[in-house]
Amino acid sequence: MIMTKPRIAIAGASGFIGIYAIEELSKNFRIRALCRNLPTTNSLNSDVQWFSCDLFNLKEAEIAFQDCDYILYLIHSMTKGSRLTQSTFDDLDLIIADNVRRSALKNNIKHIIYLGGIIPEINYGISRHLKSRNEVEIVLTCSGIPLTCIRAGIIIGSGGSSFQIVYRLVKTLKIMTTPKWTKSLSQPVDVNDVIQFIKLCVGNKEVYNKVIDIHGTELISYNELIIKIATLMKLKRTLITLPFFNLGLSKLWLYIITGIDYYTISPLIDSLKYDLKANHSLYFNNYIPNPISLNDSLQRAIENEEKNEIKPRRKTFEENKVRTVQRLNLPMGWDSIRLGKEYINWLPKVFFTIIRSKVNNNIVRFTFLKINLLTFEFSDDRSSTDRQLFYIKGGLLVIKKDYPPARFEFRISPHEQSAIAAIHDYYPSLPWPIYRIFQASFHKMVMYLFNKHLIKIQNKKV
């Protein structure tokens, strides 16, 4: 009797860790590799299935996880997918994590593994980047499905953002003025050790509902790491630390020198000012007793980087598509149904009925001087008490009136007293510069005022 391998879905399969994970995990599992854009060449491995999926879309996520046993979660929203993304990366991370949570429950997933970041011992005032990674852990925990949170600092490997930043600095500059945060300590771990540990964790009940810090062989500062890479590359480099070199200047400087996308660099740099020491490492030490040495790890990464001649990615934007996400205060006792109704009733009042809302069965129209601006169609079958979904079906401000994924939603956060209001895959009809200056700014103001309105309601209850 031929035994069928279990299937693991890899969310973020086309990224740095994902590519390494596919190669190793396909030896023991069937792989469903999730990505937005399918690779141009198909995998020769029959156990690897590339699957196009937008994890901001709950319906697509539910389909993507069908017939899967496990999920490896590698998503971090540090790049902007739509031409205009009116949101912070932590709110984008929240939506994706919640979609994975909901979809995993619907598909009876047995185990989720999440690769996040090490949280500093003193977590007061930590960066939004690290807070977001911690929040993703909490949201996934709300599913009740066994979760293993693997936390890492710098992961060494060709193609990894953290390594590429340092590598390109060393390669480009003979004299470097470094900011104060480069004295912070970390324990860089080799990407192959990361993948081997993930492999040993999948479906392993011993690590269910555990938080595990993973690490390399050395505790080292970023300055020391720069010098070590320079030595291995046989380059002489001089470092001058400037205490007044703040984080903002660091981001701009690194963006100019390395060519790596600013939205990727920014949250990474915000996290580098902390010592990132591994503390909860019992299982990692037991499963990976002899981690790859830092010198061997760096040497391999340098050789691969030079061989592949990886160039900075060019900025790529999708067509004139919009995503906006705002986190809202949620009055106690409210669900998404009441929240949606409050928004529809509140909007005309705050704008003195200049903008009107008209509800007819499942259709909501927003009008200005009797001109239909937007038409929403309520989706009864895709809505619940913790999520209200409206498809954007028409109106003067919509250019693609029959584009199915265009939608507006309210959803309740599973882990805190808040809600998310989001527009996805919306194509505005206004010329792009005019849309950005006027309509996008107007929407941002509207959601700000609506949030203030919700805070007032909550304060009255208190």
> What is the percent of helical residues?
25-40%
- State the shape: globular
Number of separate domains:
2
Instruction: Assign the CATH superfamily of the largest domain.
Output: NAD(P)-binding Rossmann-like Domain
Rounded radius of gyration (Å): 24 Å
| Number of DSSP strand runs | 21
Which consecutive residue ranges, at least 5 long each, have pLDDT under 50?
none
* CA distance, first residue to last residue: 65 Å
How would a crystallographer describe the biggest sheet?
Answer: 8 strands, mixed
Structural class of the helix and strand makeup?
A: alpha/beta
Q: How many DSSP H or I helices?
A: 13
Mean pLDDT: 88
Strand content is 15-25%
Q: Report strand order across the widest sheet.
A: 5-15-21-20-19-18-17-16
CATH architect. name of the largest domain = 3-Layer(aba) Sandwich
| CATH class assignment of the largest domain | Alpha Beta
The CATH topology name of the largest domain reads Rossmann fold
